[in-house]
Amino acid sequence: MASIAPLQPYDLQQHIADNRLLGLWGLMSGYRMTYLGATISQALAALAKTSTYLLLRYIIDNVIGFPEAARLLPLFALGFISLAVVEGFFTFTSGRLAARTAEGIAIRLRDFLFDHIQRLPFTYHDKTRTGELIQRSTSDVDAMRRFFSEQAIGVGRILLLFAINFIAILNLNWQLALYSVVAIPLVVYTSYLFFKRIIVAYEKYQEQEAVLSTNLQENLTGVRVVKAFARQSFESEKFDRQNWEKFLRGKQLLVMHSFFWPVTDILCGFQMLAGFLIGALMAINGTITVGTYLAYVGLIVWLIWPMRNLGRFIVQTSTGLVSYQRVMAVIKEEREPLSEADFQATKSIRGEIEFNNLSFDYEAKSKVLSDISFKCKPGQVVALLGSTGSGKTSLVNLLPRFYEYTSGNITIDGVELNKYSRKFLRSQIGIVEQEPFLFSRTIRENITYGIGREATQHEIEQAAQAAAIHDVILTFPNGYDTLVGEKGVTLSGGQKQRVSIARTLLKDPRILILDDATSSVDMETEAEIRRALERLMKGRTSFIIAHRIQSVMNADLILVLDQGRIVQQGTHNELLQEEGIYREVFELQTRIEVELQQEIESSHISGFKGSNQ
Ligand code: UTP
Ligand code: MG
């Protein structure tokens, strides 16, 4: 196939239309000429076919039975062959152009959708199932591709075939032409009725397919949980039920189709039969010649056949329309604006951060953060401590503008947070997520992911050393070029955390956020990372979320959160002076540690005694 036209910058959002057919027409922008070419080629192919029958008529009426004309027969044979070649050529050309239109629209749509989905806000991704998005980007886009390659082109072909053959028959005999199309309105009306029903059935079918692919995707991602809880049969049964539901919906769709085909086939069959009979009677009466009759027999097949297919196409168009609507529902979603800010920061952030009476909730649910107020200077370390669900992650996620706060405000270097563009903020803030995600790429690619340029081996190693993962990486078969995930090494939880710390450190952010970043790392390694970080954090403002007091006690400011509120704030020493959660946690953790130490010592002693006896 010919190469596809290069992609133009393209804004699909402008093609969203309430009328789905208009919307699909909009999607064809840039490909309408190719589509026109395909249609014209089909017209020419149809014309060649019609001419074959007209030539046949001419031979029968004017050549056969006229010996003096018989010597022209080889010429007529050549005529038939040429018409067949012309028809074949244009059929091929139209197929090629149709494929180019359909594939071109589909590739553009897929690219746009992928880009769009990546730019949708966190709130959208929080509430949307991944499987659903996968299905819309694959199966639905494919249904639209089929629409453009088969239905959209097919409809043009059918209408042309009909028009050309109708005109040809009209020229043979106008009464015969009218008799030949009486059933057509009925065929179109029946198709329309089925179309309306099938569109509903297909919508339900696609919805169920999305349920199935979501289920599959979740089970694949969560396969460990399924196995660990030995819930395979539960999951299989659930899948069976959903699959059965899909089968039922698919069956309903097929039953509708199998009702529809015979209905239109019978209508068309009768129409053709009536045409044959009336034509024969006219030939017997001498109203038309035998040649005309023979030509008519050929032509009516090409008049009615397209009509039979028009019905099919009308019905099949429903799939294109439903998929269009499903894809557009995603495209309609508002993107996270990236270049929206009216304040253009010209240089790096210094890192002075202030929260003033800030409140936040996820979409009108109960408040997740209330009345948060604190202030830190550039280069300071702010630690957040609090029970699970107290809002620590929510608080730090506001800084890179993953979510928008509802009241109060946050300022960075004295400028309100939402004056900065998200892109700029995210370039300045490095965040190690609570549940780090690594791509199935090499360790090197994972570490350099955030910087958008080539990094030197020295830089990469420095970051890895600070994250205490360098030595571990060297033990892997291919060092830094070892693949992570499915086809490579499977990293432990702590190793993943450390690779993601290295990834963030390499980015060299002005504000560093570590959300429970060392929770899966042993105490000794954690201390090692902490020492490296203390060195690296100089001059950057950092937020550290941790559960161990040791991890936070050196911070310049410790915030203790409880149910979305700051219940205590100050330095380690200040907080130890007051009554409250901090001191309780500190005492508890110290006591546990002391007890643990004593236990270890006593077991050592008894073990020692035991071995002496
Ligand atoms: P957080 O995720 O902020 O809690 O959720 P946390 O302090 O970091 O907890 P741990 O220590 O990591 O476990 C605070 C509240 O916000 C809700 C949660 O249900 C929780 O009650 N939440 C969180 C949402 O409603 N939507 C989200 O996307 C995330
Ligand atoms: Mg958290």
Q: What does this molecule look like?
A:
With 613 residues, this protein is of the alpha/beta class. Helices cover 63% and strands 9% of the residues. The strands form two sheets. A six-stranded mixed sheet has the order 6-7-8-3-9-10. A four-stranded antiparallel sheet has the order 2-1-4-5, with no helix packed on it. The longest helix is centred in the middle third of the chain and has 54 residues. The N terminus is likely disordered. The site of uridine 5'-triphosphate has 13 residues, from helix 12.
Q: Which helices and strands appear, and what pairs or packs with what?
A:
Elements: H1 20-27, H2 32-62, H3 67-70, H4 73-119, H5 122-127, H6 130-172, H7 174-179, H8 184-221, H9 223-228, H10 232-285, H11 290-331, E1 353-360, E2 369-376, E3 381-386, H12 392-397, E4 407-412, E5 415-416, H13 422-428, E6 429-432, H14 443-447, H15 457-466, H16 470-475, H17 493-506, E7 511-515, H18 523-536, E8 541-545, H19 549-552, E9 557-562, E10 565-570, H20 572-577, H21 581-612
Parallel strand pairs: 3-8, 3-9, 6-7, 7-8
Antiparallel strand pairs: 1-2, 1-4, 4-5, 9-10
Helix pairs in contact: 1-11, 2-4, 2-6, 2-11, 4-6, 6-8, 6-11, 8-10, 8-11, 10-11, 15-17
Features:
alpha/beta, single chain, Rossmann fold, binds magnesium ion, 613 residues, ABC transporter transmembrane region fold, six-stranded mixed beta sheet, 10 strands, 9% strand, four-stranded antiparallel beta sheet, binds uridine 5'-triphosphate
